[in-house]
Amino acid sequence: PPFLELRGVSKRYPNGTVALSDISMAVGEGEFLAIVGASGCGKSTILRHVAGLVAPSAGDIRWSRPPAAGGIGMVFQEPTLMPWARIQDNVRLPLDLAKVPRVEADARVAALLAQVGLADFAQAYPRELSGGMKMRASIARALVTRPRLLLMDEPFAALDEITRQKLNDDLLALWGEQCFTVLFVTHSVYEGVYLANRAIVMAPRPGRIHADIPLDLPYP
Ligand code: ADP
Ligand code: ADP
């Protein structure tokens, strides 16, 4: 069975807005899947269902193996770092919550901060970091529990093009090294095509899939 499958999922929010209409999609383990579409077409709602933050009005979500606690990492456009905590403490938080022993947790945090290029900023506070660096810290925090699935909702939309391109490349490097699956929501077709090995293109309204396109074919 696929790693994750949405079957006939529809979502009607309590105020009556229909955000998804009978969506079906299967995601294989290790895939980097882009979900592309205009604002309001239901992309975030798909991620909320996968994260278990909302329940479908109809249809269901199936896993080959349901993720354990810490098994899903999430990164949003706004880096939600705690302003009063140093970067290393922000990144270690999920491990503290999971009661991972301090020595092991510190080693994992240091390794991950080095991987995202923040080794020299472990002791810094979020306000001392640029937007791109805050995003790197958020990615490190999302990956520190070694999740099998990473959900990203327009993570780089607020960043300048150069920073965004660097983050795209570094995300691909992390994905190549560790074996997580990615669902990456973006309104940028360019970004989706650059990053993903498959793109789900949403129709404008009301929350339907327009196309499901493989992108990992070699260029001639
Ligand atoms: P996208 O991520 O593609 O911008 P969303 O999934 O955020 O789309 O939203 C899809 C539709 O559902 C939009 O019309 C939006 O206004 C609506 N919507 C999103 N969240 C809520 C909510 N909590 N309550 C009511 N309507 C919502
Ligand atoms: P994004 O598209 O960046 O993911 P959101 O999903 O937060 O943004 O919101 C998308 C749209 O859904 C917004 O335009 C907002 O008006 C609407 N929305 C979000 N939450 C609610 C809510 N609780 N009730 C009604 N509308 C909502």
TrEMBL record:
What is the similarity comment for this entry? Belongs to the ABC transporter superfamily.
Q: Does the keyword Zinc apply?
A: no
Q: Where is the ABC transporter domain?
A: 4-220
Q: Which GO terms describe its molecular function?
A: ATP binding; ATP hydrolysis activity
Could you confirm whether the keyword Nucleotide-binding appears in this record? yes
Q: Which UniProt keywords apply?
A: ATP-binding, Nucleotide-binding, Transport
Q: What is this protein called?
A: NitT/TauT family transport system ATP-binding protein
